[in-house]
């Protein structure tokens, strides 16, 4: 492991090349580059999740820690390792202070693995618009987690308004076991037609809202989210079938029961998964997730998300400019005022609504192509 203090981007590149030579990794196969964006408070959690995901997918792991943007002097500290505490692959942890943190791409771009796709994951609250962060603009896949936001449903709607093919969110990934169990339960449904569906979940759960969007998109029936669950997350889903009832309900943190009128109950595994497992699942596919886009579009009421351009242009946004914060606050207020009815998906907490952003405010400027 090589540790560099108050260094430069070129020195980090040289240190990585030296580590590769020392490890005999000149021909080391890399499937992708994983860029992790995190703040100092959550570095340990992000490193643990990224290490678990990287152990399943050979990758170059680049962790960007943005610190103290307002300090007068830019500074870069880096840790470069291969086969160290961050897993068997290549890893670089970069702590950036001052104005350098606003231009992290100048350090990250030379470190990307050649001829390999790039996945950017925001461990903390994602930017209001991906185009604000150049680390997301040059990525092939972009992974967010709206549960890190103070208002997850507003953040989820913002992900729909700002959506481009290649975007995904871990609140959707958390649904995979539920969707798998429910789809398997439907294998025994022969002629019955679904009439309606009810999802029971905790309050303001973004996964439950995406589940409702997916069910309405696939079954074309009214879907209601009942936010009276006794625990966080989804606790049950029930589908009415011509007078019968098909349900999947969680029994504990590791299993769920499938029940259907006239059939014996079955208990199957449904374990809670950590962020590392969720991230590893997302790294299995590097193409766009059209099913997620359809579920997100159905829930938000914003059509044709899959037809949007997958390319973004970076929009320069200075967090030290107070007028930018005012503009974002006004946009957030517009997003949360009133309720939106997204098709026949209903919930006791309505999805916030606003029109997709199509142009940059006056205090933003487009500075490059992607």
Structure description:
- This protein is of the alpha/beta class and 370 residues long.
- The chain has a domain at 176-269.
- Helix content is 29%, strand content 26%.
- It has an eight-stranded mixed β-sheet, sandwiched between helices. Strands 14-13-12-11-9-10-16 form a seven-stranded mixed β-sheet, covered by helices on one side.
- α2 (43-56) links the parallel β2 and β3 (59-67).
- α8 (206-219) crosses α10.
- It is elongated.
- The two termini are 34 Å apart.
- The model is unreliable at 329-344 and 347-370 (pLDDT under 50).
What tags apply to this protein structure?
17 strands; 370 residues; 8-stranded mixed sheet; single chain; alpha/beta; disordered C terminus; 29% helix
Assess the beta-strand content as a share of residues.
25-35%
Q: What oligomeric state is this?
A: single chain
Please report the number of helical segments.
Answer: 11
Question: What is the rounded Rg?
Answer: 22 Å
Major sheet characteristics: 8 strands, mixed
**Major sheet: order of its strands?**
1-4-5-3-2-6-7-8
Shape: elongated
Which class do the helix and strand fractions yield? Answer: alpha/beta
Amount of helix: 25-40%
InterPro entries: G6PDH_assembly_OpcA (IPR004555), OpcA_G6PD_C (IPR046802), OpcA_G6PD_N (IPR046801)
Domain Glucose-6-phosphate dehydrogenase assembly protein OpcA N-terminal: 51-160
Region (Disordered): 335-370
Biased composition (Low complexity): 335-361
């Amino acid at each position: 492991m090589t540790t560099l203090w108050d260094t430069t981007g070129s020195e980090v590149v040289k240190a990585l090349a030296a580590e590769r030579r020392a490890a005999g990794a000149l021909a080391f196969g890399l499937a992708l580059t994983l860029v992790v964006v995190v703040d100092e408070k959550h570095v340990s959690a992000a490193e643990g999740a990224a290490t678990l995901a990287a152990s399943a997918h050979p990758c170059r792991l680049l962790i960007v820690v943005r610190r103290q943007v307002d300090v007068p002097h830019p500074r870069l500290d880096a840790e470069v390792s291969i086969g160290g505490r961050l897993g068997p692959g290549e890893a670089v942890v970069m702590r950036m202070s001052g104005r350098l943190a606003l231009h992290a791409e100048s350090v990250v771009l030379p470190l990307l693995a050649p001829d390999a796709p790039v996945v950017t994951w925001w461990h903390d609250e994602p930017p209001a618009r991906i185009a604000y962060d150049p680390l997301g603009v040059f990525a092939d896949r972009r992974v967010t987690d709206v549960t890190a936001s103070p208002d997850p449903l507003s953040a989820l709607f913002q992900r729909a308004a700002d959506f481009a093919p290649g975007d995904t969110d871990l609140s959707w990934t958390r649904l995979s076991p539920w969707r798998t169990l429910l789809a398997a339960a439907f294998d025994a449904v022969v002629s019955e037609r679904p009439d309606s569906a009810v999802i029971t979940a905790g309050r303001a759960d973004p996964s439950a809202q995406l589940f409702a969007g997916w069910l309405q998109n696939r079954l074309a029936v009214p879907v209601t989210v009942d936010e009276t669950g006794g625990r966080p997350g989804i606790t049950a889903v029930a589908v009415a079938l011509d007078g019968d009832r098909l349900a999947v309900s969680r029994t504990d943190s590791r299993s769920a029961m499938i029940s259907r009128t006239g059939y014996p109950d079955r208990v199957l595994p449904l374990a809670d998964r950590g962020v590392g497992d969720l991230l590893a699942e997302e790294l299995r596919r590097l193409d766009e997730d059209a099913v997620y886009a359809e579920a997100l579009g159905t829930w938000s009421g914003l059509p044709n998300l899959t037809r949007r351009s997958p390319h973004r242009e970076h929009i320069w946004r200075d967090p030290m400019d107070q007028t930018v914060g005012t503009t974002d606050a006004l946009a957030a207020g517009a997003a949360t005022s009133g309720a939106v009815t997204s098709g026949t998906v209903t919930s006791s907490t309505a999805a916030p609504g606003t029109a997709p952003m199509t142009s940059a405010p006056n205090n933003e400027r487009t500075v490059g192509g992607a």
